[in-house]
Amino acid sequence: MTPGFCRRAGCGLFASRGVAAHLLRGAIAAALLAWALVNQAAHPAPALAAGVVAVVAMRGCPMCWTAGLLEAIIGRVKP
Asked: Core-most of 30, 33, 46, 76, by most CB within 10 Å?
């Protein structure tokens, strides 16, 4: 079950309910991708798994994450 903090917003396909939750998912994904790139030669299977989890955390590619961030910001501004 997804915690309420990270659930999808009603305003868009990729946005989280809040900007903070969206930025947290992005930070987690960035950390996992950095770890995967640094350790890909020494630990290929865990690096691949970390990359997959990062893509899941971003709900797609980095462009999808950016679109979701914009949706979260726009959803926050709307009355």
From this structure: 33
